[in-house]
Write a structure and sequence with these properties.
The protein has 234 residues and is mainly alpha-helical. It has helices spanning 2-33, 46-85, 91-123, 130-157, 163-173, 175-185, 191-212, 215-221, 229-232.
Length: 234
């Protein structure tokens, strides 16, 4: 099963790289233009929301298009990374993490398409209602909260046989949930810095996973752990 393991390590690194590039691209667009997706994912004054969305729509559509590819990349990354890690960690917890991230991806797709539709609807003269904004808010924040659960599940399922593996598991499971929850209560002035911190945490996670995926088998070869026969037979 070593060859299959090596293939999934390569795929993990491939999709981690693709996701990181897309994330950097979205970050770059937001920093350069001042347009980001997050301000349109919360309830606020409908008239201000409408005017901001109309003004931001050209660059927002670019971000949403990149995000559509990012969804594919992060879903495949999690699938491949979990396939590597489950041979040395808790397969059940990793499976829960994958399920949670796939549901997150579905919500993310719905969110993106709703924003695409909303930008075009506003150009046709549709008004923005509080009910519509509440629906967008609940959808977006449910997606984020589920993604935090996914990272905690994955962190609990990762092998923790060495200090490096333990540090990586903590880095996966702790910062994102704390940053996300703090965003819900932080003053408006802190919102964008917290969004940037979340972006950087995601980026570090992709890069770190790509680096550590190849260490799992090395730790096993040192006699610290053995992969499950039941898992290897699949």
């Amino acid at each position: 099963m070593l060859v299959l393991h090596d293939q999934y390590v390569v795929l993990t690194r491939l999709w981690a790289g693709v996701a990181a590039v897309l994330l950097i691209g979205m970050m770059g667009v937001s920093i350069a233009t001042g347009v980001a997706q997050e301000p349109f994912e919360i309830v606020r004054d409908p008239s201000a929301y409408r005017s901001d969305l109309l003004a931001s729509s050209p660059w927002l559509k670019v971000i949403l298009a990149m995000d559509s590819l990012f969804i594919i990349a992060y879903a495949l990354f999690f699938l491949c990374f979990a396939r590597v890690a489950r041979q040395y960690g808790d397969a059940g917890m990793l499976q829960l993490g994958v399920i949670a991230i796939l549901v997150t991806a579905i919500l993310d797709i719905i969110e993106d398409q709703h924003l695409f539709a909303l930008t075009d609807s506003l150009r046709l003269g549709e008004d923005v209602s509080l009910e519509m904004l509440r629906m967008q808010h609940v959808l977006s924040q449910t997606k984020f909260h589920l993604s935090y659960m996914a990272t905690v599940f994955v962190a609990m399922g990762l092998p923790r046989r060495t200090p490096v593996e333990l540090a990586f598991a903590l880095a996966v499971g702790v910062p994102l949930p704390l940053l996300g929850i703090f965003r819900w209560v932080a003053p408006a002035a802190f919102q964008f810095p917290l969004v940037v911190a979340q972006w950087l945490a995601f980026l570090a996670g992709f890069l770190g996973a790509g680096l550590i995926a190849g260490r799992f088998a090395a730790a096993e070869s040192d006699g610290r752990s053995e992969p499950s026969d039941a898992t290897d037979s699949r």
